[in-house]
Amino acid sequence: MPPLTLSCVQLLHTMKVPLSKLVATLQCHPDITDYLSIDQCIAFLNLIQLIKPTLLLALPPGVPGPLERLPLSAHEFIRASLGLTHETMKLVWHVLRDIAWDSLDLDEADRSNLGRQYLRSFLDHGPSNGIGMQYYCTVRLSGLNMPNSLLPPFTTAQRASLYRP
User: 0.85 exceeded by the pTM?
Assistant: First the structure.
């Protein structure tokens, strides 16, 4: 298994997945690191956590999950965010779906903090795949913290200007 980088360690801090479970899964599927770095594995798990409320809507009644396959919108959003091929994305979901699904649910503060880390992915790849960011992060506007769902709709240019680093 490749060594952990500083960004990887920072991502692990925000993750709601036990590291031992991730390591055990990667040891059982060592070929996955041929397609995906450790940083990308963690980013994948974090993105699944952020869009999990949307994924829950795709579950048939009475089925606890995880989904056998990701909905196309979620598949394409994560694939584009991580720069993966279609086939690699299918493999990654197959290998990591149980870990991603069984992760602890995020509270509002964790969701907001994690959402900010992936804001660029939501802005770049979310709209074209029907993935909104209103549930995933809070923005600071005029000194007030407001969920994005309470903000008026913005054009793409207006939205981009709000989130410039």
Answer: no
